[in-house]
């Protein structure tokens, strides 16, 4: 039986979404009834569509088998996406053996937040999600496909692909991951070197050596940030093949999963007997399951924005209260860096997502009867893929944790509530990732230092200005102000202050990386400073309380909200490194608590 609070939140979402969800499903049914327009294209149109198909060209013109569209985020700037270079040919070959055809429908941009962290390019990062959605729409707009596979892993890429896929929700959709890179320098050792560099204890040569040892090959970064949280969600929500998220790249099992995923996508098309459009997979229950997975594994705070935008694309309306209520009843069952010392390879070996899903199902904390690309029921995702004599099979998982320092049964969790917390008070509404924050750091009451640029925070640190307890406020970092960049490059500084015994916290209307966590950070503050939110009224020395235990975010100094809000010159954020092109996004984007999207504002 499903836990009553999970049932209540789900019903609340269904009721709230009725006016949008019904029309969305009607549009998808109309699109399905029309079917792919290949047969209705002019001869010239068909010839254009098939001209580059090589050996498949004639078959596409005369055959009746399905045609699979490939939407790829391949580039070799991202280690996580480099393995996708090989995927189109693997997919074509697999589909040919199944009697169908496959084409790369289009590519979408994919930027690396690790490269742009602390740089001007980070101000394009969140907006790249909606660009990816738009590019997905362009890729599929030819309407010549019976199903689609999506090649994407990282931070904004999977959410953007999901948003785009739901505009074509009448098509089956299977997401094909690339897997994590093999383990290198442990993430905690890398973090220590970063802190030593900031403190001037080691030089750039030693820092570079450590970074290269941590990020050393193809695949996703091994910490549990946004990219790997995305992969978790695709299993909890039923869009990956079971157990496929954390299989390393360029291995026989990885290739077999890729080939089977492509065949599975085409088998789910309207041409077969198991039509499974993505609009039916991604229903309200699937999104609730995704939120449960987010809380139970201590995933990235970025998904508190992305999941809202992803759901809205399918006519489903989520809000942060849904996340908070689910977090209150879902235990934390995993500790993966930065929430622990293990990386995702260790997590996978200890039982991984299969065990986590199984133990949450046992406790009634997931909807068990959801429709997935693996068939009816989430129980399929407790199984493990294996190669037996060259054949891909799924076998029953271990059913127990192989390392309870990494993943535990829901009956014996690391903590009784989830990894993320909603904060509210007279400063507004925000969120905090609490799974990595030690209990003694979860309540901070201190004077604020206010900044409008993260570079100024770094300068103040170098000047030795942070000598007492402090809450660092970085404002005018919201989606309307400058695209809501991540402020992860502040983590080493704040960690050093915390290590000195100071009480320290960050408060911002911007974002933090999914890799952040040990320092309490109240982020995504709404209303943002540019909208005249209370964060715009603060001055240096005002007393603030950040309380992750009670979920409070309070200005304690009297009279603050009687002041006029501060304004600032944002012209420097409007130009350079592509920022000129995104003025329309900044002017039309919604608030963080509604998904920070240009869609559905």
Automatic annotation (TrEMBL):
It catalyses: 6-phospho-D-gluconate = 2-dehydro-3-deoxy-6-phospho-D-gluconate + H2O. Pathway: Carbohydrate metabolism; Entner-Doudoroff pathway. Residues 405-596 form the Dihydroxy-acid/6-phosphogluconate dehydratase C-terminal domain. Gene3D superfamilies: IlvD/EDD C-terminal domain-like. It comes from the Bacteria. [4Fe-4S] cluster binds at residues 154, 221. The keyword rRNA-binding does not apply. One of its GO terms (cellular component) is cytosol. It holds the Pfam family ILVD_EDD_N. Binds 1 [4Fe-4S] cluster. Its cofactor is [4Fe-4S] cluster. Residues 68-379 form the Dihydroxy-acid/6-phosphogluconate dehydratase N-terminal domain. Keywords: 4Fe-4S, Carbohydrate metabolism, Gluconate utilization, Iron, Iron-sulfur, Lyase, Metal-binding. GO terms for biological process: D-gluconate metabolic process; Entner-Doudoroff pathway through 6-phosphogluconate. Its EC number is 4.2.1.12. One of its GO terms (molecular function) is metal ion binding. PANTHER family: D-XYLONATE DEHYDRATASE, PHOSPHOGLUCONATE DEHYDRATASE. Belongs to the IlvD/Edd family. Catalyzes the dehydration of 6-phospho-D-gluconate to 2-dehydro-3-deoxy-6-phospho-D-gluconate. This is Phosphogluconate dehydratase. It comes from Ruegeria halocynthiae. The lineage of its organism: Bacteria, Pseudomonadati, Pseudomonadota, Alphaproteobacteria, Rhodobacterales.
């Amino acid at each position: 039986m499903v836990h009553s609070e999970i049932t209540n939140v789900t019903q609340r979402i269904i009721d709230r979404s009725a006016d949008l969800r019904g029309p969305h499903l009607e549009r998808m049914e109309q699109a399905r009834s029309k079917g792919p327009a290949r047969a209705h294209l002019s001869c010239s149109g068909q010839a254009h569509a098939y001209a580059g198909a090589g050996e498949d060209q004639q078959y596409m013109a005369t055959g009746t088998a399905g045609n699979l569209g490939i939407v790829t985020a391949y580039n070799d700037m991202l280690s996580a996406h480099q393995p996708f270079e090989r995927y189109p040919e693997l997919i074509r070959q697999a589909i040919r053996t199944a009697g169908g055809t496959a084409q790369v429908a289009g590519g979408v941009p994919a930027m690396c937040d690790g490269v742009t962290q602390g740089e001007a390019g980070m101000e394009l990062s969140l907006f790249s999600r909606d660009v990816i959605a738009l590019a997905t729409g362009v890729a599929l707009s030819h309407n010549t496909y019976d199903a689609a596979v999506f090649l994407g892993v990282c931070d904004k890429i999977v959410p953007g692909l999901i948003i785009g896929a739901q505009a074509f929700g009448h098509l089956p959709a299977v997401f094909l991951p690339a897997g994590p890179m093999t383990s290198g320098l442990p993430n905690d050792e890398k973090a220590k070197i970063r802190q030593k560099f900031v403190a001037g204890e080691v030089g750039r040569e030693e820092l570079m050596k450590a970074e290269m040892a941590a990020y050393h090959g193809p695949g996703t970064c091994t910490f549990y940030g946004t990219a790997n949280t995305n992969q978790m969600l695709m299993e909890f929500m039923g869009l990956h093949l079971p157990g496929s998220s954390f299989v390393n790249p360029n291995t026989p099992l990885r290739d077999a999963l890729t080939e089977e995923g492509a065949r599975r996508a085409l088998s789910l098309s309207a041409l077969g007997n198991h039509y499974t459009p993505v609009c039916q997979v991604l229903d309200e229950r699937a999104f609730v399951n995704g939120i449960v997975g987010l809380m139970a594994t201590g995933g990235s705070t970025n998904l508190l924005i992305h999941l809202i935008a992803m759901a809205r694309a399918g006519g489903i309306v989520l809000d942060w209260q849904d996340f908070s209520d689910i977090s209150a009843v879902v235990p934390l069952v995993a500790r993966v860096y930065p929430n622990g010392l293990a990386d995702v390879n260790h997590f996978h070996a200890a039982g991984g997502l299969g065990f986590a899903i199984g133990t949450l199902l046992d406790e009634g904390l997931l909807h068990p009867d959801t429709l997935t690309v693996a068939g009816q029921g989430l129980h399929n995702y407790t199984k493990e893929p294996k190669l037996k004599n060259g054949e891909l099979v799924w076998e029953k998982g271990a059913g127990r944790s192989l390392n309870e320092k990494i993943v535990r049964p829901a009956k014996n969790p690391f903590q009784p509530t989830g990894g993320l917390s909603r904060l509210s008070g007279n400063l507004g509404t925000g969120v905090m990732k609490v799974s990595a924050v030690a209990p003694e750091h979860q309540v901070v009451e201190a004077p604020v230092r206010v900044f409008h640029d993260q570079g100024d925070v770094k300068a103040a640190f170098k000047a030795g200005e942070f000598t007492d307890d402090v809450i660092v406020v970085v404002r005018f970092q919201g989606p309307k102000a400058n695209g809501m960049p991540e402020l992860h490059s502040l983590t080493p500084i704040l960690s050093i202050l915390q290590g000195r015994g100071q009480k320290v916290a960050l408060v911002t209307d911007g974002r933090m990386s999914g890799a952040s966590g040990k320092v309490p950070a109240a982020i995504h503050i709404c209303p943002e400073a540019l909208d005249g939110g209370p964060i715009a009224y603060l001055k240096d020395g005002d007393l603030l309380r950040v309380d992750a235990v009670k979920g409070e975010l309070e200005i304690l100094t009297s009279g603050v909200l009687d002041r006029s809000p501060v304004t600032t010159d944002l012209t420097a954020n409007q130009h350079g490194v592509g920022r000129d092109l995104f003025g329309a996004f900044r002017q039309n984007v919604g608030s963080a608590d509604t998904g920070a999207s240009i869609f559905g504002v």
